[in-house]
Amino acid sequence: MRFLIISDLHANWEALQAVLEDAEGRYDRILCAGDLVDYGADPNAVVDWARRTAPLLVRGNHDKVCAGLEDMEWFNPAARISAAWTLETLWPANLEYLRSLPKGPLPVHGFQILHGSPLDEDEYLINVHDARQVLPFLHCSLSFFGHTHLQGGFISHDGGFEPVPAVPASQDERVLEIPGGRQCLINPGSVGQPRDGDPRAAYVLYSEEERLLRYRRVPYDVAAAQRKIRAAGLPARLANRLAQGE
Ligand code: ZN
């Protein structure tokens, strides 16, 4: 089985389209590590796509807040404004779908998908120290996660973890063979709001048979996504940051 692994779409329709075109014909199933909505101006298009396509997915912290399942009080001001706008803008059937998304970790084919950490969907796995903290709670050797919007992840090594670098800016792919006997925490990066300094949409192709991960980056129409964010009256920072990937 070949999987397209995506995360943190954040209502960015242009970025999602670019990823789907780039990956076309190279996967059998789609897995999503959460955050379909918030920040971007196309929550209905993205959630409609998810309802039609039925990927295996877990909810993200922004899905939970935008579905009205959790208070948005602890969000920063820009996130609070966009979460309230998203909650108002979502059509009832799309809101219902968001509310029904399962909390991770979700076991799939001998591996698992989760949003933040195996313990808490709101917790960030940013560095090797964070990865080491959750080692006792990993119930399978391969996990896909998101939330940080940083492509890469961590692979266990000598009782600790080493980081997996993102695709270099000069390339569009980095291939990684999954090592045996190690714990792999793999972050495909963010489709709709990358924060690792590379504005291109990020994702991963995973082949079970070959035990291969292909980290990929694909350019998309950033200006179109920015225009929609501004036209919706959302905070300018949410549009501006897309150009820098931060
Ligand atoms: Zn996110």
Topology:
Blueprint: E1 2-6, H1 13-23, E2 29-32, H2 43-53, E3 56-57, H3 61-66, H4 77-89, H5 92-100, E4 106-108, E5 111-113, H6 128-134, E6 142-144, E7 152-157, E8 160-164, E9 173-177, E10 184-187, E11 201-207, E12 212-218, H7 222-231, H8 236-244
Parallel strand pairs: 1-2, 2-3, 5-6, 6-10
Antiparallel strand pairs: 1-11, 4-5, 7-8, 7-10, 9-12, 11-12
Helix pairs in contact: 7-8
The structure holds zinc ion.
Question: In a few lines, what is going on in this structure?
Answer:
31% of the residues lie in helices and 22% in strands. The chain has 246 residues and is α/β, with parallel strands linked by helices.
Structural overview:
This protein is α/β, with parallel strands linked by helices and 246 residues long. The protein has one domain (2-244): Metallo-dependent phosphatases (Purple Acid Phosphatase, chain A, domain 2, 4-Layer Sandwich), CATH 3.60.21. 31% of the residues lie in helices and 22% in strands. The chain is built from eight helices and twelve strands. The strands form two sheets. Strands 3-2-1-11-12-9 form a six-stranded mixed sheet. Helix 7 (222-231) runs antiparallel to helix 8. The longest helix has 13 residues, at 77-89. The chain starts with a strand and ends with a helix. The model has no long low-confidence stretch (mean pLDDT 95). It binds zinc ion (ZN). Residues 8, 10, 35, 60, 62, 147, 149 line the site of zinc ion.
